[in-house]
């Protein structure tokens, strides 16, 4: 199965993913951003875009990469990746469902001022206009479809350890470490 951690930049997806992986038996982290990195490395380059998710090959490559990793290694994939375009999420989730791969979709949410502060004071990546630019699209997605389609976990004032434990408990409580109660 896949435990997908969605939410915008600064919500804590990457940190939480590593912690969730340590709490779920036979799990591993697959960062779909690396698929985008592969596409970005193609030379000569693909058409100009501000986000590799807009390249049509990215979405089926994420599906196929996840499918192949699960086929090879089994277990659970924890996938931290922001997907704010509903059409893209539908393409990915229906592609995985078409292979019979269950998904637990979580959105890590934090209030906008907290996200802004986290992005501007990020000690690893530093301040980022690119990451800040996704605050409004996140708000729009959260209001229109994203929060409706996932289990929302507020990370505003909660430690990453508690967020990870909440996710792991939800997955394990539902008996979803190997099967999902909700295929999206």
Describe this structure in words.
The chain is 47% helix and 13% strand. With 184 residues, it is an alpha/beta fold. The protein has one domain (2-173): P-loop containing nucleotide triphosphate hydrolases (Rossmann fold, 3-Layer(aba) Sandwich), CATH 3.40.50.300. A 5-stranded parallel sheet has the order 2-3-1-4-5, sandwiched between helices. The protein is globular, with a radius of gyration of 16 Å. The model is unreliable at 178-184 (pLDDT under 50).
Q: Order of helices and strands, N to C?
A: EHEHHEHEHHHEH
CATH C-level class: Alpha Beta
CATH superfamily assignment? P-loop containing nucleotide triphosphate hydrolases
CATH architecture designation: 3-Layer(aba) Sandwich
List the helices and strands and how they pair.
Elements: E1 2-6, H1 13-23, E2 27-29, H2 33-40, H3 58-73, E3 76-80, H4 86-98, E4 103-109, H5 112-120, H6 129-132, H7 135-146, E5 151-154, H8 160-173
Parallel strand pairs: 1-3, 1-4, 2-3, 4-5
């Amino acid at each position: 199965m896949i435990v997908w951690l969605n939410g915008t930049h600064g919500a804590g997806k990457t940190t939480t993913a590593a912690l969730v992986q340590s709490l779920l038996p036979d799990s591993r982290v697959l960062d779909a951003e690396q698929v985008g990195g592969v596409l970005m490395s193609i030379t000569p380059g693909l058409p100009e875009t501000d986000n590799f998710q807009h390249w049509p090959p990215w979405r089926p490559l994420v599906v196929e990469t996840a499918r192949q990793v699960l086929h090879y290694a089994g277990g659970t994939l924890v996938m931290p990746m922001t997907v704010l375009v509903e059409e893209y999420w539908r393409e990915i989730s229906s592609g995985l469902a078409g292979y019979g791969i269950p998904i637990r979709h979580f959105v890590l949410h934090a209030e906008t001022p907290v996200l802004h502060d986290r992005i501007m004071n990020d000690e690893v990546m530093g301040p980022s206009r690119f990451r800040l630019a996704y605050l409004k699209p996140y708000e729009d997605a959260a209001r229109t479809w994203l929060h409706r389609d996932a289990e929302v976990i507020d990370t505003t004032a909660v430690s990453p350890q508690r967020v990870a434990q909440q996710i792991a408990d939800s997955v394990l409580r539902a008996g979803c470490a190997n099967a999902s109660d909700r295929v999206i």
